[in-house]
Amino acid sequence: MSQKNLEEFEKKIGIGFNDKNLLKQVFVHRSYLNENVGFDLDHNERLEFLGDAVLELIVTEFLYNQYKNPEGELTNWRSALVRGEALSEIANSLGIEEFLYLSKGEQKSGGKARQIILANTFEALVGAIFLDQGIDITKKFISKVLLTKVPSVIKDKLYLDPKSHLQELSQAQTGLTPVYKILTQYGPDHAKSFTVGVFIGDKFKSEGSGSSKRAAEESAASSALERWTELNN
């Protein structure tokens, strides 16, 4: 990563780091060091560890101060905000992926594995901002990129798992409970893959695949939720 790139990223997040190497370390994945022995920085896992705790504290404080809901609801909302998928989306919006230091093998990876790397890198960024700028600047950053999503998490019930959300929506609007049926399964017993269809009444709504029946059902439910308006018009 060149100095110019560092400055571009700082402009994007609106924070000028005092310690440029600390910012650079945010993007160093462990796999990169395996192929680049003697690299001048450590990987980002300690920053990730710190950032995870700081992020949870800031989100918890915000929810506690802004909402009078019971503990269980606040916990569910917090979980939806800081889960890996949500953090990887923010990382993508910040363009974090183009700055990553990855091994050649990890550079070729995608899907869930890349999502995890991006989410972890975002947590490392939070840890680095906390160390370099302090808690107040960190809170402003989290407020800008994450806490603005709280109303939609609550309104759209994103804190529910996909199957629970689909069931609640379906029962409210159709009076029917979704039913999941295995459409196909393949592969050896130790590495099976499943494709599951979700039906409401006798109508097929969507399908999803996964390495377990539950994962496939959740994928099908997520797909049905994304297309709910289209499927029910």
TrEMBL record:
<keyword id="KW-0698">rRNA processing</keyword>
<dbReference type="GO" id="GO:0008033">
    <property type="term" value="P:tRNA processing"/>
</dbReference>
<feature type="active site">
    <location>
        <position position="52"/>
    </location>
</feature>
<dbReference type="GO" id="GO:0004525">
    <property type="term" value="F:ribonuclease III activity"/>
</dbReference>
<keyword id="KW-0694">RNA-binding</keyword>
<dbReference type="GO" id="GO:0019843">
    <property type="term" value="F:rRNA binding"/>
</dbReference>
<dbReference type="GO" id="GO:0006397">
    <property type="term" value="P:mRNA processing"/>
</dbReference>
<keyword id="KW-0540">Nuclease</keyword>
<dbReference type="GO" id="GO:0010468">
    <property type="term" value="P:regulation of gene expression"/>
</dbReference>
<dbReference type="GO" id="GO:0042802">
    <property type="term" value="F:identical protein binding"/>
</dbReference>
<comment type="subunit">
    <text>Homodimer.</text>
</comment>
<keyword id="KW-0479">Metal-binding</keyword>
<keyword id="KW-0963">Cytoplasm</keyword>
<feature type="binding site">
    <location>
        <position position="48"/>
    </location>
    <ligand>
        <name>Mg(2+)</name>
    </ligand>
</feature>
<feature type="domain" description="DRBM">
    <location>
        <begin position="161"/>
        <end position="230"/>
    </location>
</feature>
<keyword id="KW-0699">rRNA-binding</keyword>
<dbReference type="InterPro" id="IPR014720">
    <property type="entry name" value="dsRBD_dom"/>
</dbReference>
<dbReference type="GO" id="GO:0006364">
    <property type="term" value="P:rRNA processing"/>
</dbReference>
<keyword id="KW-0460">Magnesium</keyword>
<protein>
    <recommendedName>
        <fullName>Ribonuclease 3</fullName>
        <ecNumber>3.1.26.3</ecNumber>
    </recommendedName>
</protein>
<feature type="binding site">
    <location>
        <position position="123"/>
    </location>
    <ligand>
        <name>Mg(2+)</name>
    </ligand>
</feature>
<feature type="region of interest" description="Disordered">
    <location>
        <begin position="206"/>
        <end position="233"/>
    </location>
</feature>
<feature type="domain" description="RNase III">
    <location>
        <begin position="6"/>
        <end position="134"/>
    </location>
</feature>
<dbReference type="GO" id="GO:0003725">
    <property type="term" value="F:double-stranded RNA binding"/>
</dbReference>
<keyword id="KW-0507">mRNA processing</keyword>
<dbReference type="Pfam" id="PF00035">
    <property type="entry name" value="dsrm"/>
</dbReference>
<comment type="similarity">
    <text>Belongs to the ribonuclease III family.</text>
</comment>
<keyword id="KW-0255">Endonuclease</keyword>
<comment type="function">
    <text>Digests double-stranded RNA. Involved in the processing of primary rRNA transcript to yield the immediate precursors to the large and small rRNAs (23S and 16S). Processes some mRNAs, and tRNAs when they are encoded in the rRNA operon. Processes pre-crRNA and tracrRNA of type II CRISPR loci if present in the organism.</text>
</comment>
<keyword id="KW-0378">Hydrolase</keyword>
<feature type="compositionally biased region" description="Low complexity">
    <location>
        <begin position="207"/>
        <end position="226"/>
    </location>
</feature>
<dbReference type="InterPro" id="IPR036389">
    <property type="entry name" value="RNase_III_sf"/>
</dbReference>
<keyword id="KW-0819">tRNA processing</keyword>
<feature type="active site">
    <location>
        <position position="123"/>
    </location>
</feature>
<dbReference type="InterPro" id="IPR000999">
    <property type="entry name" value="RNase_III_dom"/>
</dbReference>
<dbReference type="Pfam" id="PF14622">
    <property type="entry name" value="Ribonucleas_3_3"/>
</dbReference>
<feature type="binding site">
    <location>
        <position position="120"/>
    </location>
    <ligand>
        <name>Mg(2+)</name>
    </ligand>
</feature>
<dbReference type="GO" id="GO:0046872">
    <property type="term" value="F:metal ion binding"/>
</dbReference>
<dbReference type="InterPro" id="IPR011907">
    <property type="entry name" value="RNase_III"/>
</dbReference>
<dbReference type="GO" id="GO:0005737">
    <property type="term" value="C:cytoplasm"/>
</dbReference>
